[in-house]
Specification:
CATH topology of the largest domain in chain A: 2-enoyl-CoA Hydratase, Chain A, domain 1
CATH architecture of the largest domain in chain A: Alpha-Beta Complex
Shape of chain A: globular
Helix content of chain A: 40-55%
Strand content of chain A: 5-15%
Number of helices of chain A: 11
Largest interface: A-B, 54 and 46 residues
Oligomer: homohexamer
Chain lengths: 270, 270, 270, 270, 270, 270
């Protein structure tokens, strides 16, 4: 496993455990963080021995969001020419979006384990994960409005599929904090755990469960869910028909059916 | 009414009651079941005397999903030529999708009454219905991942519009069972009833209520809701404007308004 | 402020308070109401001193929906020529849709405060607002099916993004009444208040909170949320990158960051 | 081969030659014609021994368009109830569209050979074919405007992909006749032949050429071209990547490459 | 007819002749021109006695494009605040687009008659018309690149549907001038006439021909062609089926068919 | 400039001249070629001193298409497991598509200069360029059907926007060769030159012309044209309004207008 400046990455069986590791900075997302997210999820996407990913964070808070020092540096790099600044800023935003897209494009499910503050860029990040779980002390805030900007790396695009429209708008316009209980009822997280230890254990266990399934089935399911979100039902149906034209010829299907008939647990190749 | 091998179909007033009838096989969905669903809903769609449909199932379980014997037969029909197998499998999937699409394309609302297991193909089926109700003992499972495949007849396309994204993914990746209480909170079902008898009675009553409304209004509403799901708001608005250009000239509108003014119950033609 | 026949409009600081004022007619939506909604929200959209809008209604009920006298007048204007009637009706529907679209297209957030009945056209109206709050005695009804027509000014297009699919269909097919408690659980409203006074106070307070934020941030956020709803995630990401290419060069961003660092409250120009 | 009332269908090697056979009625499209087109192309789609189709017409004219007797019959079936008439007409239009869609959905290329008049419904028909060829005496007319209606079975949807926008609109608004020379320059036909005999011979020869290619390659190409027409470039690229994931494992690819290396003509299974 | 500052508008039978009238300024498009285009085409859209429109220009040149004085004025209105400038510019562009959209949204066909220079904004304008005709001395130029900007009122969006992609890009990147002969071959214009007099006569004659057809048929055709351009074939087919559900009940259809059978010329109401 | 194995890259003023350099292999596209295309166009995209690109090829032929040795190697890497082969092939296709997408995503116009054979993958390549020019001896062939597959790296997605639908299908189904004259009439190339020398000179000159324009204007134009191709006209208009909100604040606009008024040639920064 590569060495990262801002992450600890560990592979436990078929599960990659990715831990954001800037606890003294409240896991603020610096240039290094964005770049390493991109690299780590490209690796997780292509290494067949990884079948599920857990994204957690060391320290008291999941993440306070984008590093303000990085924002300041970006501001300092601007010139007086509005057109060329616009070109530069657009490229930069697309680059940051690319880091979080790498989580979504990672063909393996990504489970987020969230404690303490999950603010601003932290919400953009977990919205790109497949499923979210949190501790009782977790709290969430779409903070961009408070730094004078519309969120631009995924929250406003992905969160409306996760929580209801009215709540989404209230959070986005007011920047108010949402606690773990409301997050649970709103569907932002699937379950709440008493503390960080029990949270991470539970999420790793769920990831192991997923990693034991057929990777052809799980990865096809993720592809189909993301495709369905962005297309009409009819297009989604046509796409899965063309996709499964190949995938139903996989050995995994036979192996799974045989196992089920003989009441055994099937084992699948990567 | 035609004779069906795997269904009992009865018309009660303006409501068609469609009962899946393979209770000894846990209502597993065989070739016959798929073909007859297609035929029954084509009939319900075009017979104007049917104005609402209830889909229920005889026996202890709503459905255990696709019949494994049918899967095995399909597997046996494959050759060594991957390309031609792909062509054949794609056609087969589209044919099965077509059966469930017939439920969605049926211009009359379809209400599902669910008891016991509703697994795999059973979920695909009820996701294509308009509304779902269940008994306390009902339980749901997106089982495809456990037979080594991505679901391909509608669950991954339609369910994300019904339940929240995070829960959807957990169910699809893990294949875990969801009980009636969670299904109710998740919005998968609209109400839970103590047992099969009270469930079917209540759902039939709701269907009768719908069947007494103007069929022009109800069927236009279903068309608009499905259109809206698959298009932008602006396109949906334009479509309903073109649609109602004809439909607001219907007698039903006058009859309904007159009835409302005179505090009487309007009666509508089929 | 202009004089309106059916509305009272007041500007409180940066918040426009728009009150529907036909209490003796249960705030039924007459020709005047539709026309004035269009005018008021065009004004609120373009006047930079307005940064948030509260939409409330005088009297016991928010609105009983479209004025039946207006419907009757429209019916009386039809000839025997179906084709030309269709052309006329289509234009009329598009004109009415335009009034409610003006709420959605208003670049400032619109918060609805709802008491008593909110029926038919009233639902179309509040579905076009950003966020909804109500009193305990509020009740909601998609009433169009009971006057023999499919709703055609927004309910069937916008409400499915706000409440779950199964509930949406039940309400639309049956025309049953939903109380404030169910509306709260369904996500139709964000909060419920004991009475009209406390409701309006609370909503005005939320609006003031929003109006104090950077208008560049808030209005960009509304634009992005509506764009995201109608496009794929990928398209939404590209759009916000192009949008923020300009907007991140705004002074508001610098002002907000500086305020945050110095723990002060930033003040933003209109 | 089945017996048809209004068609002669012959299979020559791997090519189906479908001849419209109502020469005494200028091949006007009667109820029988529409129904048999649907049946013939469903057959051509699923019979693997058919690899290309030629659509020609007996007599002096390709087709004068929809049979006016059929239009009259449809008119006679209407009642005084506008709403129910609208429902009936919509179903009928969708049924007729379905016949021509069967040509487009037929997985094998369809080549049209056109002589004399190709008017109204005849244009809708050839626009649904893959490629068009004609005789010098051929002439084309979007005639619907002259019977007081907008064309509704495909011309207005498919022809704009074939000829330029400005010409399309002139033809559609004025109903003027276009001769074979203009049709050639406009791209409506790929080539012009002196008479019906040389036309049919040439088109059959082209069809035989196509029928000798790998059916996996040809049918995949048709699927991709139709998909590309209706989607963005990016979506088209993603779709072909998923499609070819299966199809590149076909034996045809190996057989074709080996043949090419050894300078031999490959022979492909159906 | 209203009085316009920069246009002469005359109604000849059922045809509106709209003449741009700033010949001494080479018909440069000033604030007045944009505003009056919007007003004139809103009128032409809703006045049923207008069934076709001819757009021509007085003087030697059709139009030199946007008035540079107007551009300068816009520049002068900008402040130092990039974000608020962006908001203002976006509104202004959308307002100008709205003027040309009024041509496209006008339900009656619009025929452009072009002489001399048709540059910059002039191309945006004629691209929004249905059909274009020109004199031999006409010449076209996508001039925006030469004033340092990407065209933003329609050329880059509409022209690619009219001329081929490769030519489109060459013209847009280089700003080179295209003469009438190339414009004819490229499909930008449908025909070329020797001089302005013969051009206007011929175009008026074509407009009269269109105006004599059923307005239900012609206007439905325009609606369908624009819808088809912006949607998939399948969506276009569904839309026309819903549209014609009303329109086939129009008297025009019966009148047209009866006239055709009795070899007479039908006359249609507005 | 980096060293490439299969390309010569030279920067002439603001124009990058990219020459494919495997003349002894008829410029067959090997693994190196695909990888280096990706790298070169990523560089051309981000280096602001490059403002236009010419893509030409050394030797007698532009390119014979994909290297069959590479195809063979890919075939050899497949296992017996159809599902995992499908996963691998899909990734590989997406990787190759990514190389040609880099040409399309390069923000600067790319002009292709084509001589001799331009077959198979060569067509995919030039279809991703902005504009194509060729020599008299050039000939084009969509060759994929002859190696038993549907083209999957762009021809079937991009070419239909360049040439007419009927011709597109004939070329794709039959694999017949098209000469330079037909390519010119079909709009595949914008001009034909007598020989390679005059071709390259002319194309470089056109590229220099483009490179002298405002890069803000030219690059915005490319972005808008590609966006327009993949979206409806209305979406394209909205996108350019948001885009130009920033770009019209660029100095280039002022500089260009001032130059035009003073009849001077403006000079623009990169």
């Amino acid at each position: 496993m590569s060495d990262y400046k801002t992450f600890e990455v560990e592979q436990i069986g078929k599960v990659a455990h990715v831990r954001l590791n800037r606890p003294d900075k409240a896991n603020a997302m610096s240039e290094d963080v964005w770049r390493e997210i991109h690299a780590i999820f490209d690796w997780a996407d292509t290494d067949p021995s990884v079948r599920a990913v857990v994204f957690s964070a060391n320290g008291k808070h999941f993440s306070s969001g984008i590093d303000l020092a990085m924002m300041a540096g970006l501001g300092a790099s601007l010139s007086k020419e509005v057109g060329r600044n616009a070109r530069l800023l657009r490229r930069k935003i697309i680059e940051l979006q690319g880091a979080l897209n790498a989580i979504e494009h990672c063909s393996k499910p990504v489970l987020a384990a969230i404690q303490g503050c999950c603010y601003g860029g932290g919400i953009d990040l977990v919205a790109a994960c497949d499923i979210r779980y949190c501790t009782e002390d977790a709290r969430f805030c779409i903070k961009e409005v408070d730094i004078g900007m519309a969120a631009d790396v995924g929250t406003l695009q992905r969160l409306p599929y996760i929580i209801s429209d009215g709540l989404m708008r209230e959070l986005a316009y007011t920047g108010r904090v949402m606690d773990s209980d409301e997050a649970d009822r709103a569907g932002l997280v699937n379950a709440v755990y008493p503390d960080h230890g029990s949270l991470v254990d539970a999420v790793l266990e769920k990831a192991q469960l997923i990693a034991a399934k057929s990777p052809i089935a799980v990865q096809g399911t993720k592809e189909m869910l993301i495709y369905a979100r962005d297309h009409s039902v009819e297009e989604g149906l046509n796409y899965v028909a063309s996709w499964n034209a190949a995938m139903l010829q996989s050995d995994d299907l036979k192996r799974a059916i045989m196992a089920q008939m003989s009441k055994q647990t099937p084992v699948f190749d990567d």
